[in-house]
Amino acid sequence: MKEFDITLHVDELQPADLSAGERELIERAVAATLSANAKYSNFRVGAAVRLADGRIIIGANQENASFPLSLCAERTAIFAAQANFPEQPIVAIAICARNADGLTREPVPPCGSCRQVMTEMEDRYKNRMEVLLYGTDKILRLHSAADLLPLCFVDANMHG
Fold it and tell me: What are the pLDDT digits (tens) for 136-148?
C-alpha cells in the first residue's frame, strides 16, 4: 500500500487585503443574496462570477417546494454565464450567504454539486478559477476550484 497526502492552501483575508476586483466581486455576490428565492430555508446565498473579459454574472439560490428541484447560487451564476457567454472562461467566483440575522460571520463553502461544476469549468477551459468565500469575520481565498474537490472526476477520467 502506498499512502500520500493532499494539501490545501487557503488564504484567510480581511477586506483590506483584497484587490479592488476581488472587493467588487464580493459586493456583487452580497447584492445577489437579495435575489434569492429562499422562502423555505430563509438562507440566502449569492454568487458572482467574473469572466475572462471582465464581465460579472450573478446568481442566487432558488428554492422549490420539491427540494431536489432547487438550485444553488453558484450553479445559477455559472450556468447563466455559460448560457450567455460560452466562449468566456470563468476566472473567479465569490460566494456569500445571509440568514435571518444578516450576512453570515463565517464563510460558507459550496456544496458538493457546486464543487463538481466549478471544477469542470476549470477543466473545460484549462484555467484556474479563484474562489472567494465571504464571511463578515473573515474571507477565505482559494487559488483554484479544484482545491475544493481533490481527486475530482473530470472529462479525462472517462477517457483514461
Answer: 999 999 999 999 9
